[in-house]
Amino acid sequence: MIDFSKKPLFLAPMAGFSDLPLRNLVKQFGADITISEMISSNALVYESSKTLKMLEKAELENPYIVQIAGSNESVIQKAVEILNRFDFIDGIDFNCGCPVNKVIKQCAGSALLQDLDKLQRILELIKKTSNKKLTSVKVRLGFDKKDPIAIAKACENTGIDFISMHGRTRKQMYSGNADYEAIALAKENIKIPLVANGDISAENAKEVFKITNCDALMIGRASIGKPWIFHEIKTGKKIDKVMKNKIIFTHFEEMLKHYKEQGISIFRKHLHEYSKGYEDASNFRDCVNRINDVEVMRKYIQEFFNRE
C-alpha cells in the first residue's frame, strides 16, 4: 500500500495537532501518508465517544493508519480487536517514541525502549491480532542512551512492515539536534523500510535522505504553521502568498466541517503559528483568542492574511 521506492513523505502522528482536518489538508498539499493522533489503547477499550471520533478517516487519506499507545498486553489486544471492526483503517502503528511523563509513567511510549523483549511481544501480538494490511512502529534512538541497531532489529524480527525512527533519545526530549548518522546505522542493519524523523525541513530534506539512506521522511513539528512543507520538499520551490492563504483558509473550513463551532477555539493554536513573522502578529493572536463567531473569525483571518 506504500510505495517506498518513491521516497514518500509522512505526516507524523502528533497529539493535539494531526487531527482529521490537518491530515486532509496536508494530503491536498503534498503529504503521501498520514497517521492519526496517538490514541491510548486504554481509552479505545473504554470506547469513549471522543476517542472513537479520533478514529475517523479524512476523505483523502489512503492508506489510513491509526497509531495506538499502551503497555498492557491484554488491553492492547482488545484495542486492536476494536480497530478490526473498522474496514476503513488500513494499518496500525504502535507508539514507542512518545517522551512525555504521563505516558512514561504508564510504561508506554518510549519507556518500552528499555524492555525490547516486551516491545517485541507487543508488536507480535498486534500483528497476530490485527486484520489490517500494515503494522508499523514509531521509535526513538533509545531511552537514555542511543541503541538504534538493537531497537531496529528487535522491531524487524516481529515481522512488521516498516519502522519510523526519531533521531533523539527519550532523555533528549526535543532538545539538541536529531542524529541522522544513528538513523543511518539502524537502516544499514535491517531489510524492512525505515522512515527518518526529527528536525526535517524543506531545506535539509535532501541531505537527510542522503545521510540516512532511509526510505521515507516523517515530518512533525515543522508542519505546524507550515503544512505546505510537503509541497516545498517535493518541488524545491517556496510557495507564494496566494497559495499560503488558500491553505490557511482551507484549514479553517476543514476545522469547521469537522468540529462545527468548536473548531473556532481549536483553530486558534494554528493561527498563532500561521501568523509568525507577520507584522502585528501579537495583536492578531490576542484578537483571535477572543473571537467566538464563525463569520467574524472568517472575515478577520481573510483581512489579516490578505494584507499587502
Automatic annotation (TrEMBL):
A molecular function GO annotation: tRNA dihydrouridine synthase activity
PROSITE patterns to which the protein is assigned, alphabetical: UPF0034
Root EC class: oxidoreductase
EC number in record: 1.3.1.-
Family membership noted in the UniProt record: Belongs to the dus family.
Function: Catalyzes the synthesis of 5,6-dihydrouridine (D), a modified base found in the D-loop of most tRNAs, via the reduction of the C5-C6 double bond in target uridines.
Name of the protein in its database record: tRNA-dihydrouridine synthase
